Amino acid sequence: MPPRSEEHARSWLGSGFGYGKALDWRFVTGGPMELGPATVWGRLTIPLVEGEEMTPLERLAVFADSGNGVSFALDFATHVFVNVDLTISLFRAPEGEWTCMDAETVIGPSGRGLTRSTLYDETGQVGTATQTLFVAPR
């Protein structure tokens, strides 16, 4: 996996935000403070339920919910964008701890957006995720 960058510690991922700190993030392209598409590897560092072993599918589902957060198209300081839903479509079962996401967010008219992510495990592509977004100025 790529090394963690210093930029990571200063971003929303490394701040006090629980979800951001619950994953180990490794950016290949883009970055946690950069507008635009991003490719990032990640893995959970804490269990979803204390004392329970997580499956690769559960790990992927948790990570897939961050497509909009890693490929944001508008500045967090000036806009809010909330995931209205998350759809994950897989053509094979994921394997292992690490998931990769190649994500891009587009903003349309009337306060709507869409994030599309291609999902991978360490052996290759496993499927896609989409997130519909509500977008508004802060």
Topology:
Layout: H1 6-10, H2 18-21, E1 23-29, E2 38-44, H3 56-64, H4 67-70, E3 79-90, E4 99-107, E5 112-121, E6 124-137
Question: What do these coordinates show?
Answer:
It is a single chain. The chain is of the alpha+beta class and 138 residues long. The protein has one domain: Acyl-CoA thioesterase, double hotdog domain (Porin, Beta Barrel), CATH 2.40.160.210. The protein is 16% helix and 43% strand. The chain is built from four helices and six strands; from the N terminus they run H-H-E-E-H-H-E-E-E-E. Strands 1-2-4-5-6-3 form a six-stranded antiparallel beta sheet. The termini are far apart. 28% of the residues are buried. The model has no long low-confidence stretch (mean pLDDT 87).
CATH homologous superfamily heading: Acyl-CoA thioesterase, double hotdog domain
**Number of strand segments:** 6
- Rounded to the nearest angstrom, the radius of gyration is 14 Å
Poorly predicted sequence stretches spanning 5 or more consecutive residues:
none
Instruction: State the CATH architecture.
Output: Beta Barrel
Q: Distance between the terminal alpha carbons, to the nearest Å? A: 35 Å
The secondary structure category is alpha+beta
CATH class: Mainly Beta
CATH topology: Porin
Count of the domains: 1
User: How is the main sheet built?
Assistant: 6 strands, antiparallel
Share in helix = 10-25%
> Number of helical runs?
4
In round numbers, the mean pLDDT is 87
Largest sheet, spatial ordering of strands:
1-2-4-5-6-3
Shape category: globular
Relative strand content = 35-45%
Q: Please write the string of helix (H) and strand (E) elements.
A: HHEEHHEEEE
Domain Acyl-CoA thioesterase-like C-terminal: 13-135
Organism: Nonomuraea turkmeniaca
Pfam family, one: 4HBT_3C
Protein name: Thioesterase family protein
